[in-house]
Amino acid sequence: MTLTDRQTDALGEFINIAFSRTASSLSEITGQRVLLEVPQVEIYPIEEVASNLARFLPGDVASIHQPFDGAIAGDAFLILNYEGAVRLTELLTDNGGVRQQYLDESAREVLTEVGNILLNACLGMFGNVLRVRVNFTVPNLHLESLDELIDSVSKEHDGLRYAIIIYTAFRIRESAVTGYLVLVLSVVSLQRLIEEIERWEERQEQEIHTSQNPAKSDLSV
Q: Which residue range is the domain that position 177 belongs to?
């Protein structure tokens, strides 16, 4: 399935709004100024996901996984390489300048909360902006290789065929950590998502048109 340039731009704008809300929430919770770079969005068949991400995520990865269902159903992941996950939790917490070497229990809790905020913000946009209801539960943290992650998703959900990969970077204290938001969807769910984003875009354009051309009131004499 190939998206038009207009559809890709609309999807990117939709994700960008969710990321802006995420950055604000993370800043409030951590007391750190958190910025998320403008996301880059690409779509791949599920069998091509591992090879495309492997260029940037060698070795083990940390992934926060959140299945969702409803009118649009699939799996959402926040994925970072292990070193990036350690660095992100280090930047978000006050550890007295001590460099962490691994994800201890406290760091895992922080990372899971970051994933929870980001994934909830994106999936919450389905209902708040697209007006499509989806259900999701508390996400889980997994530490494994990228191949193991993709293989487990493919086996567990045979109907999932496409992945939307969203590249971004967390910027904190003048440092940056690259992360990847991955939405794995069936063909039907991907088509529904694109249709709803197009409707959302049309509503936006209509609202702009209405605000620029307000109806003139009839004056009775």
A: 5-206
